[in-house]
């Protein structure tokens, strides 16, 4: 059993001291994961790796009690949370972009009342 799994098990059993041990135990790996996620993003990304780690950690250990089975489950959940944060961030930037500029193109779809408008932000396509 890894140190992280031991800490997660202790947290699940209600050990308050274990919760204080979790962030120092996982921080470096979360930082590497955040850097990897950010390296796959468009060059205009405004989020820093440290901010992504902190936001993801807050969401992971925040309001709901989680049942982390192991270190593997924890880091898989962290990767998913980071992905969601990056998507939310890109959508927010995309909404500002689309409000400031005209939509990039319009697509007529049969069985739909009107056109669907799309905006491209970096490598992402958003419909508005």
Report on this model:
The N and C termini lie far apart (48 Å). This protein has a single domain (3-100), classed as Orthogonal Bundle (Rna Polymerase Sigma Factor, Chain: A). It has helices spanning 3-12, 16-39, 49-61, 71-100, and strands spanning 105-107, 116-121, 124-127. The protein is mostly helical and 128 residues long. Helix 1 (3-12) packs across helix 2 (16-39), helix 2 (16-39) crosses helix 3 (49-61) and helix 3 (49-61) crosses helix 4. The chain contains four helices and three strands; from the N terminus they run H-H-H-H-E-E-E.
Brief account:
The protein is mostly helical and 128 residues long. It has one domain (3-100): Orthogonal Bundle (Rna Polymerase Sigma Factor, Chain: A). It has helices at residues 3-12, 16-39, 49-61, 71-100, and strands spanning 105-107, 116-121, 124-127.
